[in-house]
Amino acid sequence: MKNRSGEKIKLASIDELLGVVNEESAMEIEISKIHPFKNHPFKVLDDEKMQDLVESVRINGVLTPVLLRMDDNEEYEIVSGHRRMHAA
Predict the structure, then answer these.
(1) Where is the ParB-like N-terminal domain (predicted)?
(2) What is the pLDDT of residues 3-28, one digit of tens each?
(3) Structural domain of residue 51, as residue ranges?
């Protein structure tokens, strides 16, 4: 059996896996077409940290876009950014 420990393994970068957000891939979506990912493991709480985020969004806007994916109904579910969406 040949020893394969010296072979190079090519792994995909995070940008290749998720895609890089740029002006061409960023788009505005109707809020009514966006819904939370139903199996999201964390709950969005209306706690002090959320109030801080709400205030930050009020002053600065949402600095990092919410990451969405299209579902089977041609609507969008939130992959990343549940708290930002809630705060906005």
Answers:
(1) 24-88
(2) 666 677 777 776 666 665 555 677 88
(3) 32-87
